[in-house]
UniProtKB/TrEMBL annotation:
<comment type="subunit">
    <text>Forms a complex with SecF. Part of the essential Sec protein translocation apparatus which comprises SecA, SecYEG and auxiliary proteins SecDF. Other proteins may also be involved.</text>
</comment>
<dbReference type="Pfam" id="PF21760">
    <property type="entry name" value="SecD_1st"/>
</dbReference>
<feature type="transmembrane region" description="Helical">
    <location>
        <begin position="495"/>
        <end position="519"/>
    </location>
</feature>
<dbReference type="InterPro" id="IPR005665">
    <property type="entry name" value="SecF_bac"/>
</dbReference>
<dbReference type="InterPro" id="IPR054384">
    <property type="entry name" value="SecDF_P1_head"/>
</dbReference>
<feature type="transmembrane region" description="Helical">
    <location>
        <begin position="824"/>
        <end position="849"/>
    </location>
</feature>
<dbReference type="InterPro" id="IPR055344">
    <property type="entry name" value="SecD_SecF_C_bact"/>
</dbReference>
<feature type="transmembrane region" description="Helical">
    <location>
        <begin position="941"/>
        <end position="968"/>
    </location>
</feature>
<feature type="transmembrane region" description="Helical">
    <location>
        <begin position="27"/>
        <end position="48"/>
    </location>
</feature>
<protein>
    <recommendedName>
        <fullName>Multifunctional fusion protein</fullName>
    </recommendedName>
</protein>
<dbReference type="InterPro" id="IPR022646">
    <property type="entry name" value="SecD/SecF_CS"/>
</dbReference>
<feature type="transmembrane region" description="Helical">
    <location>
        <begin position="396"/>
        <end position="416"/>
    </location>
</feature>
<dbReference type="GO" id="GO:0043952">
    <property type="term" value="P:protein transport by the Sec complex"/>
</dbReference>
<dbReference type="InterPro" id="IPR048634">
    <property type="entry name" value="SecD_SecF_C"/>
</dbReference>
<feature type="transmembrane region" description="Helical">
    <location>
        <begin position="60"/>
        <end position="79"/>
    </location>
</feature>
<dbReference type="InterPro" id="IPR048631">
    <property type="entry name" value="SecD_1st"/>
</dbReference>
<dbReference type="Pfam" id="PF02355">
    <property type="entry name" value="SecD_SecF_C"/>
</dbReference>
Length: 992
């Protein structure tokens, strides 16, 4: 940044060293660049000349270039000896991942823990590890002071990087480096004091010794430093910095608007930052006061990251809202730092190592995965065959476009390292089904032109020209939704928005550009002389608008019934993704199959559960023995029964396996004499007791059991005796793990010493131990018992709703602009709201009917709204909007410049678009019905929503959006109403 002399920059040598380790040679890179960026255009020229169509060389080259670019991630994997599928990053449901639970370092925290603080922590960590929103990462609160992070398909290096991102505090601060000239008295006190902080008479920190990051030395311009020995034994340096005593005037990262990558004066990587207005003012005041003296003396600005001095550049002039951080950064460090700074500092520090760390097997069993994959393949083939049979040569063109569309979407998703779940892959096939719409619009326009007697070339030209506007309008409105969802929505919604955006852009490119190119080439070469197509709908003359009252009554009735069912179900409408619940980790004596375990658990817990197969990070032999059950059960659900959720889960768990061959691991406990510890009158010491177990246990597991038992102790009146559980310290006395045995967990013991503080009465400790002993003797051991929050925190749910509302406003604004009438936009939004409410009600109704004979016949389940289902709802919005805009576009065309909007005009438009509406619905329904029928439980709820959405979306564009448009346009007193009345009078006169 101009105005700062960055003396601590200059990492070019380090970057060169990093690059030198690359195994890819320069020639290999040049070859890749040639093949990807040059060869396609050369081939385009060769092919065009061979066809004697030189004017098409650039177009052919561009199509080949896009295909090669999209295929590059897959070709790269093959070239490096890997499976091409490695280019696709699979989600937790298909590939498993890593599960880590981090605990807040309460001892190192200055803030008191609260739900708000923990929610902010969850948000900051989510933004750090998933800044793009394209990865299926789960971050949620567990218990009162822990945060769970689940990352799909992460390898060891990835896990270490993520740990660093999560635990790094991310605090940014700017202070002035102390110097002997301006701060003589403070320097003298600091040099005499061994303490880190120097305080004034009011106890406020006015200066502090801060560790220098790296090996830089700060001795120029009378700066003050002292040597230190770091925790790892290496030698370092501390520099004294002046701290602004008024916290409100400190220049910190809380004013940061954005951090971005830049380069310093030597061309080395650096981080540029921008402050908001308040931050810019404070920064300007700080740097203005410390400008160089007239005699040439320079002061230094300390740039502190996580409390360490990253650099200390000379201040040359006043700096406002923008600046730069330099240092010996590698490219990876720059990326990590940007993620941390842009995500925001953590409210409270986390302990550097996770409390627990497991590898998770795929959440969906192999049979479920196979069913889903088979359904996806069959659905894709069905669409291709249908297009071939119905449109013949045009169907071939459509299928080429669809295949290229799929390649382009997959390639783009691979480039941005997006995560594919089973519903996501099904949604990709659905994108193909919906992408057919653009081709159908074009083909039906060509059919119309042919029926008017146009030549083939003219029919192709006019067909594409007339369909172009409709396709752009229909897709741009959906693109607006995707952009708004990405900017404002939650991580899960942003992932969907990225896929939607890429899918729409690629479908427009393939249909309008690639499809047109193929038609032009074949027509110019006389390889086709006519276009034969089937026709399921001829010329119709149905009076749709006349049926608006029946449709309105039917829709209102359906919505009312649905909303009543939704209200009656209450929390039962939502799955674990939105409700949270209780999670327990248990162990079997022998290795088990996850599908078998899930089936046995469902008999007791129902379908509202998630089962994860765990593997200890340092014990490969533990695979198949450890499982984590998540259920929506919580204490509120079991309050009427007079028990806690944990007790209910223990009972159900034991019952699920009592008559099966799968034996849960049980551990019993004995305890010795409780001894009172010696203390002083002012500081009583509490008590201790030795605990002995029949098998190895973690101290955290025993602590959970003991605290549960203490919490259940009651007063004589039945109230809880200990509202706040007294502090308990557990330490292992002996371990069965042999020295050098790396497969056993080092924190598992058969004997432990428990120490309780003076707040816990000895008799109560004994009561708790007896209760704990009884529980362990009668139930299976649970290594972990905790409540967990929903995957989507409350503020994330609010932001998702806000994103949807803003999307609706944006849709109205765009359609208002394009159609010159706000009524078109309002009518489209009414249809969208109608579709979402109807489908929401039918989901609840389907769950209600699932236990009846009709439900069994239709394959209904106890559907609950989860994240894949939310993606389905968003897809419905896109589909319905697309359908409605196509109809509105034809209404605008039929109406022309006529100031009136009659029911005849609307009916004509609906009849003219009927063929396209039905064909798009049929192709999309083919996909979603196959996914629903044979896709398995992994995508069953997702597919159910889509089946309903396609049917309801088609219905609403005809019977809801169009009648609402007529009603809004012809509202009493409007100019359109007067023009319509006059037009209708003239029509009736001419008929008579």
């Amino acid at each position: 940044m101009t105005g700062i002399d960055f003396h601590s920059a200059g990492l070019i040598a380090a970057e060169v060293a990093d690059n030198a380790t690359s195994k890819v040679s320069g020639w290999y890179i040049l070859l890749v660049i040639f093949v990807v960026f040059v060869l396609p255009f050369i081939l385009g020229v060769i092919i065009a000349r061979a066809l004697k169509l030189k004017e098409f060389s650039r177009k052919i080259g561009l199509v080949l270039f896009t295909a090669v670019i999209a295929a590059t991630p897959f070709i790269w994997q093959i070239a490096n000896g890997n499976d091409w599928r490695n280019a696709i990053r699979l989600g937790i449901d298909l590939a498993g991942g890593s599960n880590m639970v981090f605990e807040v370092d309460e001892a190192g925290s200055e803030k008191e823990l609260s739900n708000d603080v923990m929610d902010q922590m969850v948000g900051a960590i989510g933004r750090r590890i998933n800044p793009s929103g394209t990865e299926e990462v789960t971050v949620r609160k567990v218990g009162q002071n822990r945060i769970e992070v689940i990352v799909p398909g992460a390898d060891t290096e990835d896990v270490q990087r993520i740990k660093s991102l999560i635990t790094r505090l991310g605090s940014l601060e700017f202070d002035i480096v102390a110097n002997r000239r301006d701060h003589a008295s403070i320097v003298a006190r600091a040099l005499e004091s061994p303490r880190k902080d120097i305080r004034d008479g009011q106890g406020r920190v006015i200066a502090s010794w801060r560790e220098v990051n790296g090996d830089d030395s700060y001795t120029e311009d009378q700066m003050v430093s002292r040597p230190i020995t770091r925790e790892d034994g290496t030698q370092g340096e501390e520099v004294l910095v002046i701290i602004e005593p008024n916290e409100d005037r400190r220049v910190t990262g809380k004013y940061l608007v954005r951090a971005r990558q830049s380069t310093d004066q030597n061309g080395a990587p650096a981080v540029a930052f921008t402050f908001n207005a308040r931050g810019g003012t404070l920064f300007s005041q700080l740097t203005s006061k410390n400008r160089p003296s007239k005699d040439g003396f320079h002061r230094h600005l300390a740039v502190l990251l996580d409390g360490k001095v990253q650099s200390a550049p000379r201040l040359i002039t006043t700096i406002g809202s923008e600046g730069q951080i330099t240092g010996r950064f590698t490219q990876k460090e720059i990326s990590s730092l940007l993620n941390v700074l842009n995500a925001g500092a953590l409210e409270v520090p986390l302990k550097p190592e996770p409390v627990s760390e497991f590898s998770i097997s795929p959440l969906l069993g192999s049979d479920v995965q196979e069913k889903g994959k088979q359904a996806i393949i069959i659905a894709a083939i069905a669409v291709i065959v249908f297009m071939l049979i119905y449109y013949r040569f045009a169907g071939v063109v459509a299928n080429i476009c669809l295949t290229l569309n799929l390649l382009l979407v997959m390639g783009c998703m691979s480039f941005i390292d997006a995560t594919f779940t089973l519903p996501g892959l099904a949604g990709l096939v659905l994108t193909i089904g919906m992408a057919v719409d653009a081709n159908v619009l074009i083909f039906e326009r060509i059919r119309e032109e042919k029926s008017r007697g146009s030549s083939l070339r003219m029919a192709i030209n006019n067909g594409f020209a007339r369909a172009f506007t409709t396709i752009i309008d229909a897709n741009l409105t959906t693109l607006i939704v995707a952009v708004v969802l990405y900017i404002i929505g939650t991580d899960q919604v942003r992932g969907f928005a990225v896929t939607l955006f890429i899918g729409i852009v690629m479908s427009m490119f393939t249909a309008l550009y690639v499809g047109r190119l193929i038609f032009d080439v074949f027509e110019r070469k006389r390889w086709i002389s006519d276009l034969k197509m089937m026709s399921i709908v001829g010329n119709t003359n149905i009076d749709f608008i006349n049926k608006r009252k029946i449709a309105a009554f039917f829709s209102v009735l359906l919505i009312l019934i649905g909303m009543v069912v939704v209200s009656s179900r209450g929390k039962e409408n939502f799955d674990i993704d939105f409700t949270g619940g209780t999670m327990v980790t248990f162990e079997f004596e022998d290795k088990q199959e996850i599908d078998t375990i899930r089936g046995l658990l469902q008999k007791e817990f129902g379908n509202s559960l998630t089962l994860e197969q765990l593997q200890l990070s340092n014990d490969p032999g533990s695979e198949g023995r450890y499982f984590r059950l998540r259920t929506t059960l919580n204490d509120a659900d079991t309050e009427n029964e007079g028990t806690k959720a944990t007790d209910s889960i223990r009972t159900k768990l034991d019952k699920a396996f009592e008559a099966s061959a799968q034996k849960l691991r049980k551990v019993t406990m004995d305890f010795g004499e409780i001894k009172k510890l010696e203390g002083s009158e002012n500081s009583p010491a509490g008590s201790e007791v030795e605990l002995t177990f029949s098998g190895d246990l973690k101290t955290s597991t025993v602590e959970t059991y003991l605290k549960e038992a203490i919490a259940s102790i009651e007063n004589a009146d039945g109230s809880e005796k200990y509202e706040r559980i007294p502090e308990i310290q557990l330490s292992g006395v002996s371990s069965d793990s042999k020295e050098g045995d790396t497969t056993a967990e080092s924190n598992r013991f058969k004997k432990m010493m428990a120490q309780a503080g003076p707040d816990l009465l000895v008799n109560d400790l004994k009561t708790a131990l007896v209760a704990m002993q009884e529980v362990m003797a009668t139930t299976a051991i649970l290594d972990e018992v905790n409540s967990f929050d929903s995957s989507v925190a409350s503020e994330m749910q609010e932001s998702a709703i806000l994103a949807m509302l803003i999307s609706l406003v944006a849709i109205v604004a765009y359609i208002w602009f394009r159609f010159q009438r706000i009524t078109f936009g309002l009518a489209a939004v009414v249809a969208l709201i109608h579709d979402v409410l109807v489908v929401l009600g039918l989901v609840a109704l389907g769950a209600y009917l699932s236990h009846t004979q009709l439900g069994l016949l239709m394959g209904l389940n106890d559907f609950k709204i989860n994240l894949p289902m939310i993606a389905a709802f968003l897809t419905i919005v896109g589909y319905s909007l697309n359908d409605t805009i196509v109809v509105f576009d034809r209404i605008r065309e039929v109406r022309g410049k006529n100031p009136a909007l009659t029911t005849t005009m609307v009916n004509t438009s609906l009849n003219q678009t009927m063929s396209r509406t039905l064909l798009t619905s049929i192709t999309t329904l083919i996909v979603v019905l196959i996914l629903y029928a044979i896709g398995g439980e992994g995508i069953h709820g997702f597919a159910y929503c889509l089946v309903l959405g396609v049917i309801v979306g088609t219905y609403s564009s005809i019977f809801i959006a169009s009648p609402v448009l007529v009603w809004l346009m012809n509202r009493p007193g409007s100019a359109t109403a007067r023009a319509t009345q006059q037009s209708e009078r003239q029509t009736s006169v001419s008929k008579s």
